[in-house]
Amino acid sequence: MRVRREPDGTLTVWLTRSESRTVLDGLDELSTVLDTDTEASAVRNRLFPAAHREDPAATAEFRDLTEAALLEARRERYQACRDELQRPSPIRLDDEAIDRWLRTVNDIRLDHGIRLEIGEDGRPGVGFALSTLALTARYHVATQLLETLLYAIEDELTADGDPATDPDGS
Q1: Are 5 and 15 within 8 A, CB to CB?
Q2: Are 151 and 102 in contact (CB under 8 A)?
Q3: Alpha-carbon distance 121 to 137, whole Å?
Q4: Domain boundaries in the chain?
Q5: What would the pLDDT profile of 109-125 be if each residue is shown by its tens digit?
Q6: 3, 6, 7, 20: which is deepest, by most CB within 10 A?
Q7: How many other C-beta atoms lie within 10 A of the C-beta of residue 62?
Q8: What are the C-alpha distances in Å from 80 to residues 91, 93, 118, 154, 158?
Q9: pLDDT digits (tens, 9 = 90+) for 7-38
């Protein structure tokens, strides 16, 4: 996995076939969550948090008004990433695609982290088992990809003199 920020601001992403397959598998799992999980699902509740935690009626009304559009937006993001992964490497990402990839890879990582019961210490709450080995590996690939994308963006911000990262504040 390698990411390079281009002079025009786009990112060029190189993934191995295995890394691409891992992200595609994560997208398939997320699509299943969107299509079959109920509101009681921990993953779905994190993807679509309650708008008014103290007011179940307001939350239900908000869901009725927004959930279909939010589901469709996620499906479109996942499909766009899936399409890009099925093209030959490298993948070129403009600003809109960078945002889509950050959101999508974060969703994959969130899904896997919840299913593995990853705690604040970064360790899985589920015990080691062959049944969780592949999921753990996919979680780490998603984490590495998300960090790599973020570092590429951060390097650009630092080079532009972002006051948040430039010690001189210039």
Answers
A1: no
A2: no
A3: 17
A4: 2-159
A5: 999 999 888 877 776 66
A6: 3
A7: 15
A8: 12, 11, 28, 24, 29
A9: 999 999 999 999 999 999 999 998 888 887 66
Task: Please identify which residue in the block is written with the tokens 């360790």.
Answer: 123
Alpha helices in 37-89 (DSSP H): 42-47, 56-85
Q: Are 129 and 135 in contact (CB under 8 A)?
A: no
What gap in Å lies between CA 102 and CA 149, rounded to an integer?
7
Paired residues of 5 in beta bridges:
11
Helix or strand (DSSP H, E) at 167? none
Arithmetic mean of pLDDT over the chain: 83
Distance CA 11, CA 3 (A): 7
DSSP-assigned letter for residue 127: P
Contacts of residue 152, defined as CB under 8 A and 6 or more positions apart, other chains included, come to 3, 4, 5, 11
- The C-alpha atoms of residue 67 and residue 12 are separated, in whole angstroms, by 33
**C-alpha Rg value of the chain to the nearest Å:** 18
Q: How far apart are the first and last CA of the chain?
A: 33
Asked if residue 161 lies in contact with residue 170, where contact means CB atoms within 8 angstroms, the answer is yes
Number of Cβ atoms within 10 Å of the Cβ of 145: 25
